[in-house]
Design a protein that fits this description.
By secondary structure, the protein is an alpha+beta fold. The protein folds into two domains: 113 residues, 2-Layer Sandwich (GTP Cyclohydrolase I, domain 2), CATH 3.30.1130; 165 residues, Alpha-Beta Plaits (2-Layer Sandwich), CATH 3.30.70. It has seven helices and twelve strands. A hairpin with a 2-residue loop joins β10 and β11. α2 runs antiparallel to α3.
Length: 297
């Protein structure tokens, strides 16, 4: 029989419902979580690092639900389950979302779902950083749509508004990270395809490498691969140097381990001290229609 970690009765306030008053007034939802975890090693060593960090999982769930604005608890449950599966590498999860008092005469009403992680082997995953400060809502959308048509998309960060580096007299950038299954593709093949996407969106390369651009795509990680090929380097050095690469990557995979330094993205972010790089996470609903259908699927 599998061991499980269980969190019950997590009460969170959020916007949920279809009626006008429900779109303005936060209501209570109650979350229950159950996921497998072999606790034998933790039990023997009595060490938190040998089990799942259920406090962090709970905090992540609370932060996500508090900011959500879904109409249906069915949607909220599906999105939350998918987020927790991917961010914490859970093999599966049982999740209940209930809405006390939603039906007159009933103490509670809710749904219970069971989902499994269908994520690719980590070595098959490719991480790209995308940026634009010339009509970014158009060029980033089209680039993401092209990526999703070619590869199974596994994850997508929020858009982050970031201050330009170097050449300051230009608009702020929009940056994000997308993860997909690039199994079987070499670095050279990926770089040629990336260049074709940039050209398709009107990217013109000049001597000013820090100037405005329609689309800039960097291959930042390819599983645990460590490689230099021409001007390309995997993992990309900007992971540890640039906020607009690090923090979207942190969101997508906080426990991901840097193949060279051996540090997790959380550890790298904790030590990041370049205060000259301004970065602001933008909410999903800031740009209606911006995100393709694969967002958090």
């Amino acid at each position: 029989m599998k061991d499980h970690i269980v969190l019950t009765g997590l009460k969170i306030k959020c916007i949920i419902g279809i009626f006008d008053w429900e779109r303005k007034t936060k209501q209570d939802v109650v979350i229950d979580l159950k996921f497998p975890c072999d606790i034998r090693k933790a039990a023997i060593k009595d060490n938190i690092v040998d089990t799942k960090d259920y406090k962090l999982i709970a905090k992540t769930a609370i932060a996500f639900v508090e900011k959500s604005r879904y109409q249906l608890i069915e949607t909220l449950a599906e999105k939350l389950a998918n987020l927790l599966l991917h961010q914490f590498g859970l093999a599966e999860i049982e999740l209940s979302v209930s809405k006390p008092g939603a039906v007159r005469g009933s103490q509670n009403v809710g749904i219970h779902i069971h989902r499994s992680l269908s994520r690719s082997n980590f070595d098959d995953l490719t991480f790209l950083s995308l940026g634009s400060n010339i009509h970014p809502e158009l060029h980033l959308y089209r680039a993401l749509s092209s990526i999703d048509k070619k590869y199974p998309t596994e994850g997508l960060s929020h858009v982050y508004e970031t201050s330009p580096i170097g050449f300051k007299n230009q608009p702020c950038f929009w940056n994000l990270v997308v993860v997909f299954n690039g199994q079987g593709e070499t670095v050279g093949q990926l770089m040629r395809w990336i260049n074709s996407l940039e050209k398709k969106e009107g990217r013109i390369r000049t001597k000013n490498t820090l100037g405005p651009r329609t689309l800039d795509i960097d291959l930042i990680l390819k599983g645990r691969l460590v490689k230099k090929q021409g001007k390309s380097q995997v993992p990309h050095p900007d992971i540890e140097k640039k906020a607009f690469v690090l923090f979207p990557l942190l969101e997508v995979s906080p426990n991901l381990i840097h193949p060279v330094s051996g540090k997790t993205m959380i550890e790298i972010a904790a030590g990041f001290d370049n205060k000259g790089q301004n970065i602001k996470k933008l909410p999903y609903d800031t740009f209606p229609g911006f995100y393709p259908k694969f967002l958090l699927r």
